[in-house]
Design a protein that fits this description.
By secondary structure, the protein is α+β, with helices and mostly antiparallel strands. It has eleven helices and 19 strands.
């Protein structure tokens, strides 16, 4: 088994004697594997320096030829096990709400059993079932008794005498044939049918292919089939599939990061996921408040000179306005970890300038920097403070908000966002 290297998002993978990345060849393997497996530009997901790599805006498993890199979500190493489980559950719920558009299946790892994220484990199940059926199709001999226009097997007597009276021209025959309608296949079909509605479209098409192969298999209650299975005569691949089936049918879903169940992991594009989920929630809350909103609004530029054209487009993550068209607030989401030991909270100067320019452009005196709260202390309640900025005579309230991600459920984060939008104008 290849060595496992672990780090958090935004943590440095340093090149030194004590680091797990010992050579520039290790650096190269990480970046090459990212391009090969993910197909995205490395500059957007790594800070690359001569002496360190820093993964950012993603978590999950990246497999290289020599080792496996596991990037854990920001803040997780400082959390208790209970809070880790909540983070796992929240990420799973955010992915489900976003229709899995912000993740992709990656390499096998150990996943948590605290949440209910099924795409990754279903990917493994489909791969294993397809491979198992290539090697050996499970089927049994069965006796078939049926009437037909011509004899098949042996003609049954005295049943044929009565049949000839009731159905002239039809012959009652009995023969032996193979059937795939066996308990194991019925259980596999039950798994596929149960989870087909919950999966992404690409995985659903694979499930449909497998279901077409099992079209002759009937479906009964799985609990009736388990006692009929003889495990001592099954190959290991089918034993593994039955184990996976029991987990899935019992709704023991897997979470999205390290735990105790072996399955395919997912690379989660955490920044995009957080941005997208917040946009969905805030747009819904805005409508309830009689406001309108738009995510990723294009068409606004810093420069718009006659004869030169437009340049430096400004695209805030979310703009909210009232019925008169006046901008209520501008929101920029940041999947980053704030440091409360520092006076500036370790907020990027670039992020502050960018958000103030958004406010200035839309003549809005309220801008919001929205972060995830994944801290042990306030991760289940959230954090908020308001500061005032002055820029060339333009005064602006900067609302620094951390959305609770470690609550009992994501309803807590929704309540926090509703309260945030209300207090902006207080």
């Amino acid at each position: 088994m290849k060595p496992l290297i672990q780090c958090e998002e935004w943590a440095k993978l340093e090149l030194n004697g004590s680091s797990s990345l010992r050579t520039y060849e290790d650096f190269k393997l990480v970046l090459e594997s990212w391009k090969a497996n993910v197909g995205k530009d490395t500059s957007g997901y790594f800070d690359i320096r001569s002496d360190f790599l820093r993964p950012k805006f993603w978590s999950g498993i990246l497999d290289t030829p020599n080792f496996t890199l596991e990037v854990l979500p920001i803040g997780i190493t400082s959390l208790s096990q209970a809070k880790r489980n909540r983070l796992d559950s929240s990420l799973s719920e955010m992915l489900s709400s976003s229709k899995s558009a912000h993740s992709m299946t990656s390499s096998a790892t150990y996943l948590s059993s605290s949440a209910s994220r099924h795409d990754a484990v279903l990917e493994v199940f489909c791969n294993d079932l397809k491979l198992a059926r290539r090697r050996q199709v499970l089927r049994r001999y069965t006796t078939v008794t049926r009437t037909s226009s011509s004899p098949k097997g042996r003609i049954l007597f005295p049943g044929q005498c009565y049949n000839s009276i009731q159905n002239p021209g039809r012959i009652l025959s009995q023969w032996v044939e193979f059937t795939e309608d066996v308990p194991e296949n019925r259980i596999f079909k039950a798994v596929l049918l149960k989870f087909r509605p919950r999966c992404t479209s690409s995985l659903r098409s694979r499930i449909d292919q497998l279901l077409s192969e099992l079209i002759s298999v009937n479906l009964i209650e799985p609990h009736l089939d388990w006692p009929l299975i003889s495990l001592d005569r099954l190959p290991d691949t089918y034993l593994s599939l039955l184990s996976q089936s029991r987990i899935l049918l019992d709704d023991e879903g897997v979470g999205v990061f390290s735990g105790d169940k072996r399955a395919n992991s997912e690379i989660i594009f955490t920044s995009r996921l957080f941005e997208h989920y917040m946009a969905i929630e805030i747009s819904s809350i805005s409508r309830e408040m009689g406001l309108m909103s738009k995510a990723q609004e294009y068409g606004n530029y810093v420069f718009d000179d006659v004869g030169i054209g437009k340049s430096f487009e400004m695209i805030p993550d979310l703009r909210i306005w009232d019925k008169s068209g006046k901008t209520y607030c501008v929101i920029d989401t940041k999947w980053k970890f704030l440091n409360h030991q520092k006076q500036d909270l370790d907020i990027s100067t670039k992020d502050i300038y960018q958000t103030l320019v958004y406010g200035l452009r839309h003549n809005c005196s309220d801008v919001v920097l929205l972060y995830p709260d994944v801290t042990q202390l306030t991760g289940d309640t959230g954090y908020y403070e308001r500061r005032t900025a002055s820029l060339a005579g333009f005064r602006c309230n900067v609302h620094i908000a951390k959305v609770p991600i470690l609550g009992e459920n994501m309803g807590i984060s929704r309540a926090y966002l509703r309260d945030l939008l209300t207090k902006i104008k207080d």
